[in-house]
Design goal:
Two copies of one chain form a homodimer. The first copy, chain A, is an alpha/beta fold. Chain A is built from eleven helices and five strands; from the N terminus they run βαβααααααβαβααβα.
């Protein structure tokens, strides 16, 4: 039997990463996120730093700028080799290939990277969205990442807006809209452990409903 | 211990009503939907037929028309008594009172009526959204409601757009956005029985996480 693939999309500070790691531990799976970026870097021929810096910034406005002006923005122009690769084969499509390869070869939990959309036709992939109440997200950012409460609120807004723009641009769908995921959970309501149990149970239902 | 309140919002044809009825049966709760409308009618002084015909139509555009022209649209003008009641106390706020009364007095499953939003501060209320793949919704409408496939597709679009407009207008939030519910499930992925089990399990997690 093919092993589970759990694709987790999440609001910043919702505990989605922690939930993903616990689900992976419970089901004996590997977690991919930054590691995945490094694999993409290797596959696409970019440096890991370049990909990490730019993969969330490949928005419509950037591509529009390149198309209309024929010139590259300063942050991209300094790396001509990478820019050439970008035009020939985008970071996103290189990532998509790595994600599809992974899903073919092994069971895994993939955090972010539009994996739920990329694997939407894989009958073994459960697509999850994790959100939380604002005060809990701020609280988590203060405790875990060392932000002040005011800075945390700003960072949550900035990161979620970046994630939404990236998702909406690459998928043509709306980030956080229930129709684009199999199960969406509010971690403030169920707790981290509660979400983990519900995701494992949901995966079992997905398999038994096929 | 206070009994569960399960508020279910759903796409037309997703099986949300059936899921709500099974959850109610499993937890020994009463289901409210049309019955609720009759209670509202009684409480608000409108006829049940009037409320049923108009409660989804009380949109911004209607209220705008009344405000700007000072006159009532033809479908409303024929019932002057009801129109007077509408201006004094909207159908929606009468429904909200009934829903809060119910949640205070007994455990129940409430289908539609923005109940999840109205009861958002009730710690015993689980707010659920049920969606499904388009082909499954069409299939259900054909089998259960006797539509042709083409008519079913149109009806799904019309009903969901009506529901979204009603919800967005009264709550100031977006219908179907994961952030507005505690758990969202795709019934095509988990099946009707799978969704019922996951909702019951989610309610148990909500209680144990308090």
């Amino acid at each position: 039997m093919k092993k589970p693939i759990i694709a987790i999309s999440r609001e910043f500070g919702s505990g989605g990463r922690m939930i993903g790691e616990s689900v992976a531990k419970k089901l004996g799976l590997t977690v991919y996120d930054k590691t995945l970026i490094e694999m993409v870097a290797e596959k696409g021929g970019y440096s890991a730093d370049f990909v990490e810096e730019n993969d969330q910034r490949l928005t419509k406005s950037l591509l529009f700028q390149i198309a209309v002006t024929g010139s590259l923005p300063p942050w991209l122009a300094k790396d001509a080799g990478a820019a050439e690769g970008l035009i020939g084969k985008s970071v996103f499509s290189a990532q998509s290939e790595v994600i599809k390869d992974l899903a073919e070869k092994c069971g895994c939990v993939i955090i972010g990277r539009c994996a739920g959309h990329i694997l939407k036709d894989d009958p073994n992939c459960l697509s999850v969205f994790i959100g939380a109440e604002t005060e809990d997200k701020i609280d988590r950012c203060v405790k875990e990442y060392g932000f002040t409460p005011a800075a945390a609120a700003g960072e949550i807004k900035r990161r979620d807006s970046e994630r939404a723009e990236h998702y909406n641009h690459h998928t043509g769908k709306m980030w956080g809209n229930a129709a684009n995921y199999h199960i969406c959970l509010n971690s403030s309501v169920f707790g981290i452990g509660g979400c983990v149990d519900l995701i494992v149970e949901a995966y079992n239902k997905l398999v038994s409903n096929k």
